[in-house]
Amino acid sequence: MATDNRGETELLSREEEELKQPEDYMVILLNDNYTTKEFVVEILKSVFHKNPEEAQRIMLTVHNKGRGVVGVYTWDIACTKANQVHTIAKQYDYPLRCIVEEA
Asked: For the chain, what is the mean pLDDT?
């Protein structure tokens, strides 16, 4: 609101800001020859909150195809999940890697 020179109040028009949805990013787990299938399933359950059946299915996709989409998230969450995977894998001396790609 603003007051004009006569002391009257007028409304100022405000440009409408167009809000857009945040972009989605895929977290993709990559296969390697050293990380055990059981460890991958545990990562899928603990970091990505997958149920045992879904974790098993994703693990087999990664094993058979070399990579598999684990989930789709906003940028910050996708990067956080990828970092969690790398941190846990390093603690257990596994080379498990995942990448983040635009969905």
From this structure: 91
Residue among 91, 102, 103 at smallest CA distance from 43: 91
- In sequence order, the 6+-apart residues with CB closer than 8 A to the CB of 23 are 74, 75, 102, 103
Selection from 64, 58, 33, 32 nearest residue 43 by Cα: 58
Q: Confirm if 62 and 19 have CB atoms less than 8 A apart.
A: no
Tokens for 25, please give them.
């990013």
Distance separating alpha carbons of residues 96 and 33, to the nearest angstrom: 9
Kindly state the helix (H) or strand (E) to which residue 51 belongs, with its residue range: none
Query: pLDDT of 39-83, one tens digit each?
Result: 999 999 999 999 999 999 999 999 999 999 999 999 999 999 999
